[in-house]
Amino acid sequence: MLARHNRNDTGERMSDVVAEVHDLGKVHGGGSARVVALDGVTAAFRKGEFTAVMGPSGSGKSTLLHCLAGLDTPTSGAVRVGGTDLSTLDDDRLTRLRRERIGFVFQSFNLVPTLTAWENITLPLTMGGVRPDRDWVEGIVAAVGLSDRLHHRPAELSGGQQQRVACARAMATRPDIIVADEPTGNLDTRSGAAVLGLLAGCARQWNQAVLMVTHDPMAAAHTDRILFLTDGRLADEMPAPTADRVLDRMRDLDPEAAHG
Amino acid sequence: MRYAVRAVVAAKARYVLPAIGIVLGVAFVVSALVYGEAVRAMAERDAALADVSVEVGPDRTETPLDSALVRRLAQVPGVAGVRPIARGWAFLVDREGGTDRAAATNYLPSRHTLDAGQAPQGANEVVLDDKAGYSVGDRVRIVVNGVVRDVRVSGTTAASRSLIVLDTATARKDFAAAPDAYTEVDLVAAAGTSESALLAAVKEVLPDEFGAVSGTELAASAQADAEKITEILLGFAAIALFVACFLIANTFTMLSTARARENALLRAIGASRRAVLRRVLAEAAVLGVIATVPGYVVGIGGAALLGNLFSDGPPLQALALTPILVALCVGLGVTVVAAYLPARRAAAIPPIAALRTGLPVDQRSLNRRSVVGAISTAAGLAAICATPQTWELIYLGAPLLMLGLIALTPWLGLRLTALIRRPLTRLAGPRATLAVENARRVPRRTAATANALMVGLAICAAATVPLASLAAEAERAADTGDTADLRITPVDFAALAPDTAARVAAVPGVRLVSPVGNAHLDLGGGRALDAAVVDPVSLPQFVPVTVRAGVLGSLDHAIAVTTETATRRQWAVGTRVSTYTVAAIVDLPAGFGHDALVASDPDGQPPASILVRADPGQADAVRDRIRAALDNPTVRVHTRTEYREAAAEPYRRFLGILYALLGAAVLIGALAVATTMTMSTVERTREVGLLRAIGMTRAHVRAAFRWESVVVALLAAVVGLPAGVLIGSSAVWGQDSVALAIPWPTLGLFVVLTAIIGVVAAAWPAWRASRLPVLDALRSDTE
C-alpha cells in the first residue's frame, strides 16, 4: 500500500525513501481527557532531503517526530524506518533501531554530562559494541569544527558547541534519518545558524535524510521543504521555503502565534 | 511539625531505607538493654534465692574441704546455718544424642524447691531443672566425670540454668577431692551479724589454702558478667548506629539537593535560614520517632533470640521504662544529629537558586578535608606501627586511622575510579564508563555511601585477623609431634573416665593406646613443673623421645626432664627434685609442650587425652568402633585432621558470633548503597531518558547502575579491608605467643560478598531506571 501510494503521488524512486509514516494517529488519554495529537498523517522522508515540521503549539509536530523516531508508539497507522515496520519491534529491537538507524538532536540536554565530547559522539557506536571507525568519526568531527574540543566535558563547552557535538553524534552511526527537535531553540542566532548549516550539510553533502521540528521561520528557511501541521493534521507542504513565505503561511495557520 | 509529618509521609518511599537503618540501630540497643537486664535480674534472683552470707572454698580444687572444717566453721560466732556443698559439672544427654552441660550439685532442701516428685535417693536418681523437658519417672542418661549413668528423674525444680541435682553422697563421691570432703561450704549469718563481720570471723579460723567470699561479692560478680554482656552488645549497637548516621546524612543531603529549588523559593519569599533548618530537622525528628517504634519491637525480638542462643531464655520484661526512653533518645537523637549538617547546608542555599534550573552542584573544595584526612591517617598508621612496643597505642591508632580514612575517602574514591575507568571501559564498554563517571560525580556522597559499608567491613576484617591467627595457632598446637592415628579427648568441661584407655585397648583394630595427662608438680618454694603424665613404655611408640642422658625406664618415683629444663634449672641425672629423682634427660618434639615426663599424676587426675594406633588404613573404621564401644557423647574420637580442625573450632564459632553481631552494621551499609542508588536513578531520570533515546537497551541501563553500585561497594572494601587487616594485625603483633596469620581466603570472600552487596543493592533502582518511559524521562526537569 505504502509503496504504491508513494509511486503514484510523487513518482519518486522507492529506494530514496528512508522513513515514512502512513495514516498516523495518536490519541493521549481517554474520556473527557482525550486529546488527539495526530490525526491521519502520511509523509515520506528521502535521502538528501532536509525537512522541517512546523505548526502552532499542540499541533502534534513533536509527537510526529517522536513516533517516527521510535520514542512514542502511535495509536493507529504505521511507521517505517529503513523498510522496518516499528510496530513489529519489541523494546530491545526498537532500542537497537534508534541506536543504529536514527540520529537524535534535542533542544537541550543532548549530551551525557560525565562523558567527554568524543565519548558522547561515539556513544551510539560503543553502546552497540561497535568499534568506532576513526576516519569516519574524525571526518565528522572536523566537519562540525570540534577537533580541538574532543576531550572536554559538556559543561566546558558553549551551548552551540554542545549542539554541534550532538549533531556529530547523530551522524556518527550513518543513520537512515536524523531527527532534530527544536535544535536551535536554546541558542543565540549565530550558534543556531551554525547548527542549521550543519544539518543542511548532512542532507546535501552526506546525502542524509534530516527531519527537524521548529518554531522558527528563519530556521525553517534552511530546509528543502516544510510540512505544516495543525490540530494533528497535515495542513500544507511548502517546497524550497524562504523566511518570508514561511511567516506568511504561519500567519494564516495561527494568526495569534505569528503576532506573539 | 504538621508540615514535617506530611513531608515524611509524602517522601515515604525515599525514607524507607534510612528508616530501616534506624530501626536496626534502635533494635540493637533495645536488645542489648532488655537482654542484659534479663540476665542481671536472673543473677539477682539467684543470689537472693541462694541466701548465702559467706562462701568458703579451697584455692585449688584438689584440696579437700573435709567435715572437720565444716564443723569448725559451724562454730564460728554469728553463723546461723551451714550448707556443705559438693558441686561440679555434669552432662545431660538429650533426646538427639547431644549433650547439655549442666551445673551438678548435691540436694539441699533449703535451696531446691521441688516442683514435682521428690529428692534424689541414691546414685540412680536425679532432680532436673524444669526447662530440661523431662518429668518424674523418665529415664535419662547423664555423664559425670566421663562415666555414663542411666538414671531416673525423681523430681524437677525451678532453675535459671541447666541443673542436675544429685543426692549428697553421690555428689560428694563425684566432685569432692576426698571421700570425707565437700567442694564448698555456704554459711548463713545469724540475725544481727553483718555479712562483713561474719566474713572477718570466718577468715580468722580458715586455713591458708582456703578462701572466703561474701554473698554480696558473689552476686556482684554474677551481675558484673551481665553488665559486661550489655556493654559488649551496646558496643556493637554503637557501630551499627555510627553506620546508620552515614545512611541518614546521605539521605538528607540528597533530599535537600532534590528540594533545593523549593528551599530557595522559601528563602526568596522570606523564610529565614533558621526556619529552613528547623523544617529539615523537624522532618528528621518525625522520621526518628516513627522508626523507633518498630525498632523497639524488633529489639524485643532480638533480645528473645539472644536469650535462646546464649542462655536458657531468661524471662524478658518487654515493656520497661529505661529501654523505651533510651530507644526514643537513640532513634530521635541519632537521626537529628546525622541530619544536622545536611540541614545546615540546605538552609544555606541562596534565594537566587530558586531561579536557576537544574540541580545545584557541590562546589566545595575537598582540599581541606583531604589534608585533615591524610594527617589523621598517617598519625593512625604511625600509632599502629608502634603497637609492638606499646600495645595500648591501638586504642589511639585504630580510631585515628578509621576517621582519617573516612575523611580521605572522597579523594581516594576520585583517584581509584580514575585508575579503573580505562580498564573497566575496555571490559564492559560505555556501561562501565558511565558507572565509573557517575560514581565520581559527587565524591562526598560516594564516599559517605562507601564509608557506611566500609566501617562494618573494616571491623569484620579487624576481628577476623586475630581470631584466624588464634585458630591457626590452636591448629599448630594440636599437632604435638605424635604419630597417633586417633586421639581421644573429652569435650570442654568434661573428663575422660579412668578406665577409658583400657576399654579402648580392647576395641578390635586398636593396636596400641597411650594415655597422656597434665600434671602440675609442686616443687615447693613457689616453683612448679609442668609435666606430662605418660606411660613411658608406650609413649615412645607415638612420640619421638630422644634420651640424651640416663634411662627412661618405668619412671618409678622418677621424672624425665627436657634438655632445656635441665640446662635452665641446672639439673642432671640423679638430681633430687621434690620427691622425684631425675632419671633421664630427653628431647621431645617442639609441639609436645611439657617440661617433664612422669608416670602418674600426684593428684590422681584422669588422662587428658589418649593416643591410639589403629590397624594400618583402618583409622576411620576403628574410630567408629571406639565411638560405639564408649557410647559417650562427652568423648571425642578424632583422626589427626579432625583433631586439628576441632582445636580451631572454638575460635571459628566465636568469629561466627562476631559476624552475626556485625551483620547489622554491614546490612545498614548495604542499605546506604541501595539508598544512594535509588536517589541516583531519580536524579538522573533525564540522563537515562537521553541514553535510552539514543539507543541504550534496558539491560545496559541496568548494568550501568549495577556497575556503579559495585564500584562504590568495592571502594568500601578496598579502603576498609586493608585498614581492618592492619588494625587486626596490630592486635596480634602485641602477643608473643601468637603468630600472625592473614586469612586470605576469608578476605577474598569479603570482597566477593561486597561485590554481591553492590549488585543486590542496585537491583531495584536499576530495574526502575530501566523501566522509565523514555519520553517522560526526557521531559523531566531533573538532570
General description of the model:
Chain B: Its main location: membrane. Chain B: It is a multi-pass membrane protein. Chain B: Keywords: Cell membrane, Membrane, Transmembrane, Transmembrane helix. The complex is a heterodimer of chains A (260) and B (783). Chain A has one domain: P-loop containing nucleotide triphosphate hydrolases (Rossmann fold, 3-Layer(aba) Sandwich). Chain A has 10 helices and 10 strands. Chain A has helices spanning 2-10, 61-68, 91-101, 117-127, 134-144, 159-172, 189-204, 217-220, 243-253, 255-259, and strands at 17-28, 35-46, 50-54, 76-81, 84-85, 102-105, 177-181, 209-213, 225-230, 233-239. Chain A has a 6-stranded mixed β-sheet, with helices on both faces. Chain A has a 4-stranded antiparallel β-sheet with strand order 2-1-4-5, with helices on one face. Chain B has 783 residues and is of the alpha+beta class. Chain B folds into 4 domains: 1-49 and 217-360, no CATH class; 50-216, no CATH class; 365-479 and 646-783, no CATH class; 495-633, no CATH class. Chain B is 57% helix and 17% strand. Chain B is globular, with a radius of gyration of 33 Å.
